[in-house]
Amino acid sequence: MSDYRPVDAATRVEIEQLIAEMLYRLDHNRADTTWELYTEDGVSVGPMGDMDREAMKAWGAKRARQTDVVGRHFIGGVRLVWDGEEVEGTVQYLTFRDANEPQTLPASVGEFRERYRRVDGRWLFARREIVPVFGGRAAAAHAARVAGREGSAQ
């Protein structure tokens, strides 16, 4: 375990607040602002595709207009460790979506594999990889719905 260098309590709180802010914006029709939580060279990788900040901005604007889709994210098992000047994180998640049948079962269960960087005194996402472990087909179907390609993810 020589590579295990946990972060201090203050850093943990700040990064957990960043994660919570991201999920709040996703769950409350503010996806059009999520790109602001990334570094200039930040990327998001996962079922929605590989996106830089500009692609995230376009995706978020489209997703924010889809007010008929309701989702909620729940997280736990947050592991944060130093990697040089940056922090690496693994966050376990459950996503519930009203488009899932039945709605009371998670649409996706997996982990966020993240890298955080402090910029001008503020922690931001440098990289966010969304890795569905269960419900990958539902995550792909949701990505297709948001992109306007309803039938292509099945």
From TrEMBL:
Pfam families per UniProt: SnoaL_4 (PF13577)
UniProt cross-references to InterPro entries, sorted A to Z: NTF2-like_dom_sf, SnoaL-like
SnoaL-like domain ranges (all copies): 9-128
Coiled coil: none
UniProt protein name: SnoaL-like domain-containing protein
Organism encoding this protein: Streptomyces pini
